[in-house]
Design goal:
It is built from two helices and twelve strands, in the order E-E-E-E-E-E-H-E-E-E-E-E-E-H. The strands form four sheets. It has a three-stranded antiparallel beta sheet with strand order 1-2-3, covered by helices on one side. A hairpin with a 2-residue loop joins strand 8 and strand 9. The longest helix is centred in the middle third of the chain and has 14 residues. The radius of gyration is 19 Å and the shape is elongated.
Length: 156
């Protein structure tokens, strides 16, 4: 684990403050993942409020624990991609169809407009985009229960 040439802290107003090697502080910076779904640990840009990149981090896991925790807390407050734990029902095996799923954030329904809204990410991972633009993740389609796998296979 290498020590970065910058520091991060949260100010009294809850905003992230980036201080570079030159000692200049930037208030209100935003961490942005390069590949938030496919490789969430790899490639993170810290961007100033005016949109300029201040620092690049190759791996979040390579940062000191306090800085990593601060960045992960900030990213969690902005990222919203519920993980599907089970597919309870689908209204029809053609699209559009309404899906009822259990996620890590509770039970919900969404409309799958077309089969193209299911993207394979590799290693059994799927990204399913609902009709309102919310993206759902299936971490490992083979790890789903038998009923869920059977319903999902009709759309793959």
């Amino acid at each position: 684990m290498s020590t970065p040439n910058f520091s991060l802290e949260r100010n009294a107003f809850g905003r992230l403050v980036f201080t570079g090697a030159d000692g200049e502080a930037h208030v209100g910076v935003v961490p942005v993942r390069a590949f938030p779904i496919a490789a969430p640990d790899e490639g993170l840009s810290i961007v100033s409020p005016d949109g300029h990149e201040l620092a690049w981090v190759d791996r979040i896991s390579g940062l000191p624990s306090a800085m990593r925790a601060l960045l992960e807390e900030e990213l969690a407050s902005r990222d919203f991609a519920p993980v599907i734990k089970a597919i309870e029902a689908v209204s029809t095996f053609s699209t559009p169809s309404t899906w009822t799923v259990s996620t890590d954030r509770g039970r919900t329904d969404f409309v799958l407009k077309t089969e193209d809204d299911i993207r394979r990410l590799g290693e059994g991972r799927l990204l399913i985009t609902g009709g309102h633009g919310v993206s759902f993740i299936v971490q490992d389609r083979l790890a789903l229960d038998k009923h869920s796998r059977k319903l999902l296979e009709r759309f793959l």
